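To: structure subgroup
Subject: Chain for Friday's discussion

All,

I'm putting the inputs and outputs inline so they're searchable in the archive.
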Amino acid sequence: MQTLDNYNFAGKKAFVRVDFNVPLDENFNITDDTRMVKALPTLKKILADGGSLIIGSHLGRPKKGPEDKFSLRHIVAHLSELLGTEVKFVDECVGDKVKAAVAALKPGEVLLLENLRFHAEEEGKPRGLAEDASDEEKAAAKKAIKASQKEFTKELADLADVYVNDAFGTAHRTHASTALMAEYFSPENKMFGYLMGKEVAAVDKVMKEMVRPFTAIMGGSKVSSKIDIIENLLTKVDNLIIAGGMTYTFTKALGGKIGNSICEDDKLVNKAKANHVNLVLAVDAKIADDFSNDANTDFCDVDKIPDGWEGMDIGPKSEALFADVIKKSKTILWNGPTGVFEFDNFTSGSRAVAEAIVEATKNGAFSLVGGGDSVACVNKFGLADKVSYVSTGGGALLEAIEGKTLPGIAAIQG
């Protein structure tokens, strides 16, 4: 497989698919440029070689075509500042205007295309269908968008000599620019960017090359949204720590009283036993009489939460229990906080988990933190640089953990 380091971009026009889906405030100022910063090594390597950059990305979820609030023009000035060179912008991503802008690109120059999702063909989903459309009309619309998507994809591919995918956050999507474009480039002219390569390596290290004991910490509120992930992990891990709202589903399944805590029916306890997985559940909880940072709080056994109260975080006994398991681990995956960490009064459990992961990492463990809330946790606690890898991909990482083949990765790896 071709790599960025082994490729000389001199005199080449490179289409780089990035994930610049950054948050903007009401004045279109970027409030977090992490995704842009992480793409810089790839972009700078191409420019340093003497290549020309054609940058493609999406921003937000436009549903009706072009909308100014989703225009990538809002990030041009900051991207120019980050790259240390002028970034040209074209308010389209296909068509004669784009072809002319690309043709005029000189070595070392940068062109940012408009939001790819302004075209329905990027996602390959029909737009504007009436709610009462018949099955026949829906089928016809899908057929039409697939045909036009092929043309759209080829038009994007024809802009460049080489294709670089550095957008792990969209690797689980079979979109024109994230997976389908790669088909138009020979194996030696398509590759992962540095960020994408790191993400793929980190996932492989956890899911395929793990050193045991392997511990996964799964948090969040609902089992249903992660049931396939948990089922896949139960065939791979030595220890599975269940935290967050999911705790109460498992606790209820084991006969506990959980008060008003969030719960879903669950059938995973028996699967854990069958796979000889050490299922680690909280033993105590920090409870509150309201879903609020200022609620009255108390601690109790996790299976004895009174009516009218709900679990908002794990308690000190659970913190010690989780930390003990984590510190003895050699491979660690963390997805999801232990409680409502957004409220300062309920951060203790998530902080304890994060600090235990940091200690294990210092002692030689490989730790991967991923999923929006877990990333927010380590950032909030100032610990992001003390774990092995923090993933930029939310849905993409979850699907990789679930064991799915990600289209954006398969398109490059073959």
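Points worth raising on Friday:
The mean pLDDT is 92.
The chain is about 35% helix and 15% strand.

D.
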